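Supplementary notes for students who missed Thursday's class. We covered one full example, reproduced here. Read the sequence, then the structure, then the short commentary at the end.
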Amino acid sequence: MTRSIPAVLALLALVACGKGAGDKTAAADSLNRDLQLAPAESTMALSDTAMANAPQPAPAAPAPAPAKPKPKPAAPAAPVITSVTIPAGTVVHLASNDSLHSRHDQAGKIITANVTQDVKDAKGNIGIPAGAVVTFKVVALEPAKSKSAKDGTLTLSVQDVSVNGKSINIAANVDSVEHTLQGQGVTAGGAARVGGGAAAGAIGGKIIGGKTGAIIGGIAGAAAGTAVAVQTADRDVVVTPGASIVITLSSDVTVQK
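Structure (token representation):
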């Protein structure tokens, strides 16, 4: 079939028009999409800028460190004690370091004794510590004159006390000294008494039975005289190391620290 030239041209023109209209429609759709996307991008950009320029919140402050406990106030310093005064009338207990024997020792001998208990003032401060050394001088020392005598003679004089190497003069009365009395047995004096008893026995023997009686009586008398001497013999005053000595201060004693 053949068509006429005018009909073909009309058909081509119609196709061309349709194609142009389609192109225009596609272009319009693309532009519309671009317009829709542009505001979105512009809005995003404005939003980011605003957020960047907006004042930022201040960073959170660090948590405070735990408070340190306040130090306790220092205790007041104890007062410095430079001296201690022990009042008169204070009793001091000691133990002898030396021995005494009335048969071998005599007046003038020096002995020492250690303080056995701390000696304190009225506030409890120690003035004379245990172990301090007290010096004594023997004034009199005599045995008991007979077995029936209750005591001999022992007199001590307090000289000084040594505290921390320092010697301090003190005045004190000696209240007691622990001691014993030991019998001497037949001494020179006892022998004289024995001789007297023997002579009396001999005389008695003569009166009783002549020579033989005198001998017997003399022996008996000697034995009796010995018994008398033992009963009346002197007894020595004996003080041994460690013996207790008690003194009382008769005046105040000040000890420098």
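Commentary. DSSP finds two helices and 14 strands in the chain. The two ends are 154 Å apart (CA to CA). If anything here is unclear, bring it to office hours.
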